[in-house]
Amino acid sequence: MSIFVDITDKPLDSAEVLNYVRHPQAGAIVYFGGTTRNTFEGKEVVSLAYEAHPRLAIKTLESIAHEAKAKFQSVHKIAIVHRTGVVPVATESVMIAVSSTHRKEGWLCGEWVLEKVKERAEIWKIEKYADGDSVYKENDVSNVLSRT
Amino acid sequence: MVAVAIEYFGPAKTYTNGVAHERVELTEPATLNTLIQHVGRSYSSEFAQYIVSSCGVVVNEDYVETERIGIEFFGKNIALQSGDVVGIIPPVSSG
Question: How many CB atoms lie within 10 A of CB A114?
Fold first, then answer.
């Protein structure tokens, strides 16, 4: 297998995804870590949590990774992991790692994968603010109406 | 009667006072539309509108690909049978 995806309520481990994608024919490993911010439009975020439809989200991450492999031919391995539950501020909620023969396709693939994750993965973020408010977020690029 | 389960995720639960799943009994013939009408009566017509205009719908974990007009789904694959599990998938905020 050349893809690894996971949804977990445990802290994410960047060494694990980097080691997973390591490959003898790869000249590059590109890594993205999405970390949680402590403010939103000037409001202080006191806590932040993600929930998922675990089976659908795993299926979606798998199909994104397979599509990426087909689209970026010099990519060897892809890892996509997303955390659920309460995620402390300044901590990774998502990690993507890609190994590729040449760096350019690795960068492009990593960016493409992230965009697709933000568009499709069945995961929702709720932010709780210092003023007592809490709000479910919505990605600008979200698309849940069609999978075709 | 047709007994189905419905699951609400993420922001959909702001319309259901936090209820994440429930069992619903519908008269035959049951479709996604009769289910959404039921949900609209149980909670609010705003919720029914939100589902049809903004949310993905999965039946037994497969997305229903159907046209939507007003507060109704059109096309095939909208009939429901006893035991079906319908998931309401609001716009996502992964990442």
Answer: 18
Instruction: Find, in chain B, the residue whose alpha carbon is nearest to that of A123.
Output: B94
**If you count residue pairs, one on A and one on B, with CB atoms under 8 Å apart, how many are there?**
84
Q: Is the pLDDT of residue A4 over 90?
A: yes
pLDDT band at A148 (very low <50, low <70, confident <90, very high): low
> B63 and A146: CB-CB below 8 Å?
yes
pLDDT over threshold 70, residue A90: yes
Are A136 and B14 inside 8 Å of each other by CB?
yes
CA–CA gap between residue B12 and residue B7 (Å, rounded)? 9
What residues in B contact A148, CB-CB < 8 Å?
65
In a domain, A136, yes or no: no
CATH code of residue A88 = 3.90.1170.40
Number of domains in chain A: 1
Give yes or no for A38 touching B (CB within 8 A): no
Q: What's the mean pLDDT in B38-43?
A: 97
Kindly provide the ipTM of the predicted complex, given to two decimals.
Answer: 0.93
| Domain B2-89 grouped into CATH 3.50.50.60 | no
pLDDT attached to residue A55: 96
**Is A47 within the bounds of a domain?**
yes
CA pair distance B91, B12, nearest whole angstrom: 9
Would an 8 Å CB–CB cutoff place A140 in contact with chain B?
A: no
User: Which amino acid belongs to residue B28?
Assistant: E
Q: How far apart are CA A50 and CA A52, in angstroms?
A: 7
Domain that holds residue A17: 3-130
